Every structure is written in C-alpha cells, then in structure tokens.
C-alpha cells in the first residue's frame, strides 16, 4: 500500500462537530450534494445496459424506469456520503471548496441521514422494481465507493483510482441485469469499458488539479509519481479501453455501427494520449484529454443505443 501523504489542517470550522448551517438549505443544496453531473453520466450507462439487453422487442417500461430511479438514488446516496466524509479536505481544494457542506448550509447529521435514506430507498427500488441481483450490484458499487474508496484508499493509496473504478463500472451492468436477470459476457464487456475508462479520465483530472490534490494530501498518481509515470499508465489503460470496447462486437451484442464508432473513438483517444509524450504544456494537454474522455463515453454509449435500435428495426 502506498503511504499516506500528510494533509494540511483545514481548520476547526471545517471539522465534523464544528460545521453549522448558517442559513437554511435550499432544494438546490440537496441536489448539489448528490453530484448530479456524475449521476447523469451513470444513468446513460445504465440505460444503455438495459437497452442492449432488452431492446425494443423486450422493453418493459416500468422495469426500466424503476431501474433508472433505483440506480440514481443509490448513486445520489453514495455521493452524499462521499461529500460528508470529505468535508475536511474539500476546503483545501479550489475545485471543491464551495461545496454545500463546506459552506455549512447542510448540517453533517442531516447529510448523513439524507445519504442513508437515499441509498436504502434506491436499493429497495432496485430489488422490488427490477430484481435482487440488480440491488446486490448496486450495494456492491455503493460499498466500494463509500467504504473502500472514500473512507480508506482515497487518502492512503496511489491505487485509489483503480479500485474506485469498480463502483463506476457497475451502472451499465445493473441495467443489463435488470433486463436479463443474469450476468453474461455482454454485461462483463460493459463493465470493462467503464472500468478501463476511469483511470485515464481521473488521471487527467489529477494532472489538471495536481496542486489541489497535493494540498489536500491525496496520493493521486501525478502527486506521488509525477506526470511522466501518469502518462505511461494513462496510455496503458487507454489501450485496454480500446480493446475492451471491441468485446461488445465480438460477443454479437452490437453490430457494425458500434464497431466503426468504437474504433474511431478509441483510435482518437489513443492518439491524443500519445501526444502527451511530446507536449510542451502538460496541463493544457490534460485539459484536452479530460474533456475528450467525457465526449468519448457519452458518444460511445449513445452509439450502443442507436446500434441496438437500428439492428432491431432493420
């Protein structure tokens, strides 16, 4: 395990027993604390997983809606508890210093129960509205994100990003299982795409915000091992992502539309990563890489939906 980097003290006013709400929270505060941006991208992945398994011919609208709702609630609960636990280090980073719990608009005790209620409700919705396996996967993703990643590895190990990638790779599998009821090679292919997508995405973010992570004492790869080592690992995971994205075609889950898109998107991704070894401005390159990673994932999962739909209509 990588040794922990000493953290700066955020000051008593940011510590658990000292945070008090100066003004009453608004509904926007309760939305913000759940990290809706993360939820949106994960819901697209969950929808793509369900659509790939069910398509138009086996579409069950109530099951789909319950699956998306349950997944959204579990993710929202996990993100809320992540914000709660990180409120001591968030003031040290420019990106997070204006979060709701740092401002004190929501009390920690309220955030704790809010996160618990969201999570339990989401797992119940998945169990009853989809199936118990979907709920189990949701719980596993939640546990890895909140307990293993947030409460343990994020502050102690340079491998935090890789382990945390497990939770981020679960949503499309939940969607698949909600439709199929069982795990199959297609579900694992979806898992691998998101699992290998996350390290390059978060390595780029860490390079962009390396001073923030250093100030907060978070042992992200660029902080511990430098930019060059980060670029090498980014290239390795991007190649793994490219290869794993082809598995959906090899399994027959997706057709030629998807294959062409996956090759083009993956090829551009690898090309952009390789440019990082020749760049004279690492931060500018990391910015481009970070935003392309978002475009890559959104387009790829949208193409999955289009490919499945076109194949069924033809």
Write a brief caption for the model.
The chain has 14 helices and no strands.
Descriptive keywords:
14 helices; disordered N terminus; Tetracycline Repressor, domain 2; mainly alpha
How are the SSEs ordered, and which strands pair?
Layout: H1 27-32, H2 36-54, H3 61-85, H4 100-103, H5 108-129, H6 132-150, H7 160-168, H8 171-180, H9 185-208, H10 210-216, H11 221-245, H12 247-250, H13 256-275, H14 282-313
Helix pairs in contact: 2-3, 2-8, 2-14, 3-5, 3-6, 3-8, 5-6, 6-7, 6-8, 7-9, 8-9, 9-11, 9-14, 11-13, 13-14
Strand content: under 5%
Instruction: Look at the structure and give the mean pLDDT.
Output: 92
The CATH architecture designation is: Orthogonal Bundle
CATH-defined fold name:
Tetracycline Repressor, domain 2
CATH class: Mainly Alpha
Determine the CATH superfamily.
UbiA prenyltransferase
Radius of gyration: 20 Å
Kindly report how far apart the N and C termini lie: 53 Å
Give the total of domains. 1
Q: Helix tally?
A: 14
Number of strands: 0
Shape: globular
The main sheet comes to: none
Order of helices and strands: HHHHHHHHHHHHHH
The structure class reads mainly alpha
């Amino acid at each position: 395990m990588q040794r922990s980097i000493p953290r700066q003290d955020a000051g008593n006013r940011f510590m658990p027993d000292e945070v008090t709400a100066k003004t009453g929270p608004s509904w926007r505060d309760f939305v913000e604390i759940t990290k809706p941006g993360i939820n949106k991208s994960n819901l697209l992945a969950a929808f793509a997983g369900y659509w790939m398994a069910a398509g138009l011919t086996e579409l069950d609208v109530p099951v789909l809606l319950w699956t998306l709702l349950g997944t959204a609630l579990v993710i929202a609960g996990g993100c809320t508890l992540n914000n709660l636990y990180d409120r001591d280090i968030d003031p040290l980073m420019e990106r997070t210093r204006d979060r709701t719990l740092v401002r004190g608009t929501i009390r920690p005790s309220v955030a704790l129960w809010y996160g618990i209620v969201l999570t339990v409700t989401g797992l119940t919705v998945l169990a009853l509205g989809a199936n118990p396996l979907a709920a189990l996967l949701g719980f596993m993703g939640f546990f890895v994100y909140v307990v293993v990643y947030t409460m343990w590895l994020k502050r102690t190990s340079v491998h935090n990003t890789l382990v945390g990638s497990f939770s981020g790779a679960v949503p499309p599998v939940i969607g698949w299982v909600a439709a199929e009821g069982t795990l199959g090679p297609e579900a694992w292919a979806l898992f691998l795409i998101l699992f290998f997508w996350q390290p390059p995405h978060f390595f780029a973010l860490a390079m962009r915000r390396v001073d923030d992570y250093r100030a907060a004492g978070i042992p992200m790869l660029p902080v511990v091992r430098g930019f060059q080592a980060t670029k090498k690992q980014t290239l390795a995971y991007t190649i793994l992502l490219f290869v794993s994205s082809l598995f959906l075609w090899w399994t027959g889950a997706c057709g030629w539309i998807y294959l062409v898109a996956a090759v083009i998107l993956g090829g551009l991704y690898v090309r952009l990563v390789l440019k990082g070894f020749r760049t004279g401005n690492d931060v500018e390159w990391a910015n481009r890489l970070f935003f392309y990673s978002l475009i890559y994932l959104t387009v790829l999962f949208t193409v999955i939906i289009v490919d499945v739909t076109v194949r069924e209509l033809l």
